[in-house]
Amino acid sequence: MMSYRLRKLPQNARQLYETILGMSNIMDKYKDPLDMNTVLDTIDLASIYENVDKRERENGPHSELQYDDLVVKELLHYFKNSFFKWVNKPECPLCHSESNVVGLGGSRFSGSSNPDQVSVVENYQCRECNSRIQFPRVNNPVSLLKTRRGRCGEWVNCFTLILRAMIAEDRDRVRYVWNMEDHVWCEYYSYGLKRWVHLDPCEAVFDEPLLYCNNWNKKMSFVIGYNDNYIIDLSSKYITDSNQIDKSTIIPSLKQLSRFINAINCNKLLRYYKCLDTASQDEKLTKCYNDVIVVLNRELLQLKDHKVTPTMTQELPKGRQTGSSEWTKERGEDGN
Ligand SMILES: [Zn+2]
């Protein structure tokens, strides 16, 4: 029904709505208890906890940050510096360099089985030795625990799985965040700070939602957050007035978008209700109200009051740090 109505919309609006709808259950990718165990078997827990202990000793007595906030900070650091690798272009396996490698374009993955959920395969050639090199864009977060490389999509996909395994388990406190101008990041709910906190795993940045507008000078239209239990328009949290792309060039009315999001959230609530294993209907309804409706409304109020935007505490560099300078400039993320 929803997809039938979407076909009648202008191209930009259709693209926005179809993406939101298609991603609405994205957090299901990070739920399997077996995958959670794989994470814990893969990452270096000893060194992570050793560094968390160090952070705890340095954390002042009046700090609002609790132990698991320090775990998140350490995970960002570990993930960027010891675990995952950024790929501009893949290295030539013979010359061990990427400087002579040129892109030949991408092709759709074609194979009978696709356990790594590869969407596109990028093709390259080395000008020095003529080797052909393929870079498959992997979407399975568990496979990424092994391949450990990619661009922001792979980084956030794998980091979200690790974050979930380390702090959330089955609680709805980790979310995937999508920006229409081709960037993704994530957030978690901090019990210490009593709000959702921005995390950019590619840059190892903690709680700086204005990073994209203020430091990268990125122009953005929409930012949407995807939880287990609801989705939410986070545009006002991440986009400053001066960097806001005129929303009316994309959708005919903002009311229409909020109705669309509400409709998806109703479906998600129904799904939550059906999965509850408590006996009585009253208990189920109370749980739906307390676990989802109250939580969502509280966050919507916080967003409205702008209580979620912290002051810039870190001296962050201008422009995006990951990716080559040509690439960041082309994407309008170099801070100029
Ligand atoms: Zn080569």
UniProtKB/TrEMBL annotation:
Q: Which SMART domains match?
A: TGc
Q: Which residues form the Transglutaminase-like domain?
A: 144-203
Superkingdom, natural source: Eukaryota
Annotated Basic and acidic residues bias: 327-336
Gene Ontology MF, one: metal ion binding
Sorted alphabetically, the Gene Ontology cellular component annotations on this record are: cytosol; nucleus; PNGase complex
Its Gene Ontology biological processes? protein quality control for misfolded or incompletely synthesized proteins; ubiquitin-dependent glycoprotein ERAD pathway
Any single Pfam family the record assigns to this protein = Transglut_core
Sorted alphabetically, the keyword list is:
Metal-binding, Zinc
Disordered: where is this region? 311-336
Similarity comment: family membership: Belongs to the transglutaminase-like superfamily. PNGase family.
The entry's protein name is: Peptide:N-glycanase 1
